Amino acid sequence: MTRVDIAELVGIRTRHPEAVAEAAARRRRRPRLVGESGRLMIVAADHPARGALSVGQSPLAMANRLDLLERLCLALSRPGVDGVLATADILDDLLLLGALDDKIVMGSMNRGGLAGASFELDDRFTGHRAQDLDRLGFDAGKLLLRIDYQDPGSVDTLHTTARVVDEMAERRLPVFIEPFICHRTDGRLRTDLSAEAVTRSIAIASGLAGTSAYTWLKVPVTENPDDMAAVMETSTLPAVILGGEIGRDQDGAYEKWRTALRLPTVQGLAVGRSLLYPVDGDVAGAVDTAVGLL
Fold first, then answer.
1. Where in this chain does the record put each Cgl0159-like domain (predicted)?
2. How far is the C-alpha of 105 from the C-alpha of 108, rounded, in Å?
3. pLDDT in tens, 31-47
């Protein structure tokens, strides 16, 4: 792992908080979102701010910030990794560590729907705003759009999402929408990964706001991977495949991603826990394998 001095980070935050803005100002930016490969490989690490800290059987795997930062720095150092998706606290740390030069920096915008909470579907925008991403010179934003047809509050999320997409487009900043159809079973929120549900979520997300010019999709692989070709015909928006929780079947997940990456609208991967916390512990190996799929 890349070594991180946590005491040094805390010392900078304590005595020189302006260092975050200074690091953002001097960060070397990529000239465009998609590089020479024509593909995107994004490492996602925005789970902790929603209280989603578990990986596999470990309920607090992502709670150790030093460990997470070391894993992220290692992942970002691997050839073919284009950038990172995270919340402000993590991105500020990575800026101070100098790990974001020439990388796509994607800010996570709504983290208000805490995992397991009664208000989990109230996905308020408690993270980066469009003006924050613009001010810091970041490259894109990401938002979570979960819709429950039985929850009247979902329309508030839809409305707010549309206006945020407008705000990003005004600044010519790409925004990645991660849409899901959800429902509650025994009080627990579950995502519906059937072909019909994913198709509906893509159709809804694609039509939000006054323009879709800067909108991307971040979509899951359906329960039956063979359905993905038909599902992805729902929109012409560019998309990346998200990783999600894959359990111990890492090879099976890679094959699903490989198949989805052959589709014309799929432009890359945005994967988090399965690469940062692989079953065998080999972060570099997991990242390199995912990059190889592109």
1. 38-291
2. 10
3. 999 988 889 999 999 99
